[in-house]
Design a protein that fits this description.
It is a single chain. This protein is mostly helical. It has one domain (2-145): Actin-binding Protein, T-fimbrin, domain 1, CATH 1.10.418. 66% of the residues lie in helices and 0% in strands. The protein is built from nine helices and no strands. The model has no long low-confidence stretch (mean pLDDT 90). GO terms for molecular function: tubulin binding. One of its GO terms (biological process) is cilium assembly. It comes from Adineta steineri.
């Protein structure tokens, strides 16, 4: 965990984050909400085309923050290493639990260029919701199934 924390702090000190005020001790002592804000800030760099990440999470309801984080992680292809179910993972993410947030931050910071590309492409390659009344048209239904 110390190596993980050291890596996260070192990466956050570099551009584009430039968080020179962090060291291992100060970062480890961040509150859960502050950790969630750091995660949101990293998402804002990884996915600059989504304005929903450029937010102060104190102005957003926790459930909305969790949904936004979960959707972004899903789009980026994050797979939790923990042997927990989705609901437990979501609850720990909502609460800003370090055992969930630190691995996510490490995963994001290890491959920022790849995640940026995936976030950009994910916008165009993700499945869209088509209202059921349009799916009654066979041609639209066929295209939607592809």
């Amino acid at each position: 965990m110390v190596e993980q924390l050291k890596f996260i702090v070192e990466q956050l000190k570099r551009p584009p984050f430039n968080r020179k005020d962090y060291n291992i001790l100060t970062f480890d002592n961040l509150t859960n909400n502050q950790l969630l804000q750091v995660l949101t800030d990293v998402f804002a760099v990884v996915d600059p085309y989504d304005p929903s990440h450029k937010i102060d999470i104190r102005d957003e309801e926790p459930d909305k923050t969790a949904t936004r984080h979960m959707n972004t992680l899903k789009m980026l292809g994050y797979r939790p290493k923990l042997e927990t179910d989705v609901n437990t993972f979501r609850q720990n993410l909502v609460s800003g639990d370090k055992s969930v947030v630190f691995p996510i931050l490490q995963w994001l910071l290890e491959k920022i260029p790849e995640h940026k590309e995936r976030a950009y492409l994910g916008r165009y390659l993700s499945r869209i919701d088509v209202p059921s009344e349009f799916l009654s048209d066979p041609e639209i239904a066929e295209q939607h199934e592809r």
